[in-house]
Specification:
The complex is a heterodimer of chains A (105) and B (337). Chain A has four helices and no strands. Chain A has 105 residues and is mainly α. In chain A, α1 runs antiparallel to α2. The mean pLDDT of chain A is 93. With 337 residues, chain B is an alpha+beta fold. Chain B folds into two domains: 108 residues, Phosphorylase Kinase, domain 1 (2-Layer Sandwich); 214 residues, Aminoglycoside 3'-phosphotransferase, Chain: A, domain 2 (Alpha-Beta Complex), CATH 3.90.1200.10. Helix content of chain B is 42%, strand content 16%. The two termini of chain B are 35 Å apart. The mean pLDDT of chain B is 94. The chains are: A mainly alpha (105), B alpha+beta (337). Chains A and B meet through α2, α3 and α4 of A and α7 and α11 of B.
Chain lengths: 105, 337
């Protein structure tokens, strides 16, 4: 027995878009509270689609980095730390809500 | 108020009995509405008719108490609101607190305050044109009066972790959620290295921002809502929270609630008798505001993934932590104004 999964159709990205479209169609018929929740649901599906397109997330290193920051071991290269964290934050924003990157003042 | 589902009188015998116990056996309760937007607290709107006079009230009940909740218990909220009300501040009039014989759990009843709380409407709708230019000055005046309340009256808040040290209280919350987030860690480190000297310790509203201010199109600020984050601390903390980027909504270019400049707020605050601050002192608390808001989003995420209270909106809050971290880092790196 093999657990190989051959590509199926529609793929996940397509399914997410299809469910999103369904939610959008429902919105006009929903009362305010449920309409808001449908929008949030659609937002969450959008995050899933973008995260699938991005590829797997990585956890390694976060604990050590946190411990180093807290202990002051990154005070000496603070600006490059911020640059590194900003790069990571941009990636997370592009997955979460790409439009947020444009919000500058 | 958004959607409302109408409650039947028969389903509210306990509420009606509790109201009659306080306001008189002869009063009638009518027009009961339950707004479905309410989150953790149960909110009931109702009229009390007393000898031909009708007045609208709001009942707030705790439906679920998170043992690690950083927020004030309803009894302490009610107490803080009553003190503010007695000093003439615009607070929905506190009417009574539930006790065990009501069978309503923890909660209280206040007068209903009419108006708009939706930030983007307040910032953009033509209906607020007349009051918009003075909202920040009015808010500054109210904050100055809140901060001038006799701090002795609020000894019951002194033992709270956020009264002792709001930054370490939030770090403890963050640690409790057991998610290593380097951006938030960097925020805490910056706050630690740049901490201002503690000059005064006053009563703070704790969540003073658009969304918690009831705005009337002609009167301006008709009520300050949501006192569940009240604690003792430095006045600049409340001012910085009002300017925190997340609370500027559609106008991030205008630091004071997305309505005016930081200097406009500070000038109005000192003109109303508040302390004189320079803009950098407020910026410190804006950084704290971003760290705090990131931690509050983590709190909603924690409630969701731990199964204590699951929900779409809480899940979205968890993911939104990344957006607040981005704003925090952009601010720390000096890339925002």
């Amino acid at each position: 027995m093999s657990d190989t999964l051959r590509p199926q159709s529609p793929d996940m990205a397509d399914i997410l878009l299809t469910v999103q479209a369904f939610l959008k169609d429902c919105e006009p018929q929903l009362a305010a509270e449920d309409r808001y929740k449908a929008q949030v649901a659609s937002y969450l599906l959008g995050i899933c689609a973008r995260e699938i397109a991005h590829g797997p997330s990585r956890r390694e290193g976060a604990e050590t980095l946190c411990a180093d920051i807290r202990a002051g071991r990154r005070d000496g290269d603070w600006d490059s730390l911020l640059d590194q964290l900003l790069e990571e934050a941009r990636t997370a924003v592009r997955v979460t809500k790409p439009g947020h990157l444009g919000e500058t003042a | 108020m958004a959607t409302v589902s109408t409650g039947h009188l028969a389903d509210h015998a306990d509420l009606i009995a509790a109201v009659r116990r306080r306001l008189g056996a002869g009063v009638t309760v009518a027009n009961i509405d339950i707004p479905t937007l309410g989150g953790v607290n149960r909110t009931i709107l109702f009229d009390v008719v007393d000898k031909g006079t009708t007045k609208r009230y709001v009942s707030r009940q705790e439906t679920y108490v998170d043992p690690d909740s950083p927020f004030l218990a309803t009894g302490d909220q009610f107490r803080a609101m009553r003190i503010a009300f007695e000093h003439g501040l615009p607070v929905p009039e506190p009417i009574f607190e539930y006790d065990p014989s009501d069978g309503m759990g923890n909660g209280f009843v206040t007068a209903f305050a009419a108006g708009e709380t939706m930030p983007k409407r307040i910032q953009k709708d033509p209906g607020f044109v007349a009051v918009r230019p003075r909202l920040v000055a009015d808010a500054a005046g109210i904050l100055a009066r809140i901060h001038a309340l006799p701090s002795k009256s609020f000894d019951f808040l002194a033992e709270r972790p956020d009264s002792a040290d709001t930054i370490s209280a939030h770090r403890d919350l963050y640690d409790g959620y057991r998610q290593a987030r380097p951006a938030i860690e960097a925020g805490f480190r910056w706050l630690e290295r740049n901490h201002p000297a503690v000059v005064d310790r006053v009563f703070l509203h704790g969540d003073f921002r658009l969304g918690n201010l009831m705005i009337d199109g002609t009167q301006g600020i008709s009520a300050v809502l949501d006192w569940e984050c009240a604690h003792l601390g430095q006045p600049a903390e409340d001012l910085g929270w009002l300017c925190t980027r997340s609370w500027r909504f559609s106008r991030p270019d205008l630091p004071a609630a997305g309505l005016a400049s930081r200097q406009d707020l500070l000038d109005a605050y000192s003109a109303a008798g508040g302390r004189s601050y320079d803009a950098d002192e407020i910026r410190y608390w804006e950084i704290f505001g971003l760290v705090r808001f990131a931690v509050l989003n983590m709190m909603q995420n924690h409630g969701h993934v731990s199964g204590q209270r699951r929900g779409l909106v809480y899940a979205a809050c968890g993911r939104n932590t990344a957006l607040v971290e981005y704003d925090l880092l952009m601010t720390l790196a000096g890339r925002y104004e």
